[in-house]
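Design review, sub-item: ligand-bound model
Attendees: FS, YL, KQ
YL presented the inputs for the flavin mononucleotide complex:
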Amino acid sequence: MKVLITYFSQTGNTEKIALAIQEISSKNHESTLKKLKKVKIEELNDYDLVFIGSPCHDSDLAKPALRFLKKIPDAPKFAIAGFYTHSTFLPEGDERIKKLSEKWSGKCIATFEEVKKEKNANFKGYFRCQGIPSPPIEQFIHKTIIKDDEEWADFIEEVKKHPNENDIEDAKKFNQDILNKF
Ligand SMILES: Cc1cc2nc3c(=O)[nH]c(=O)nc-3n(C[C@H](O)[C@H](O)[C@H](O)COP(=O)(O)O)c2cc1C
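KQ shared the predicted structure:
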């Protein structure tokens, strides 16, 4: 099988996930890792499975990924899977946390779901994990989303560790599951 892993990453978090997916895909398949800006839409037809990765920006996938997804042909011959990293809450815990998670990264999932529906794509699922924020984003999250100093201290200490070993392992499992089902 021919697999493409393509991604946009400004500070390296999403790239770490791309590398983990590449490590697994390349074991038994012809697997190519390429930055999003190096991929021409026409070349996607050369692949059986395309992983597309992005950071979350302004609660959705980053602009380069959105532009790329828009250009995907209708009913593509290749299957698609998504992955993204984000610095706000995971959708776990109480209602408040779940709501904040939805507000600040929920559109990423919705966008992948839209591609599946609108492009009639064979969409295999998505992977997400947290990623350390850059200093301006760190400030933004504290000022806007997590204002309480105590909650902030715990949150930022934890999020700075991501993507961690568990995230990398989970990304590999996500990839392996998709490959197994093919
Ligand atoms: C301009 C900008 C906007 C961001 N907006 C969000 C956001 O709305 N929600 C969120 O959870 N993280 C947001 N982040 C944090 C990134 O999603 C996170 O740090 C990600 O892991 C960065 O990935 P990268 O290292 O691959 O660029 C934003 C980061 C930037 C630079």
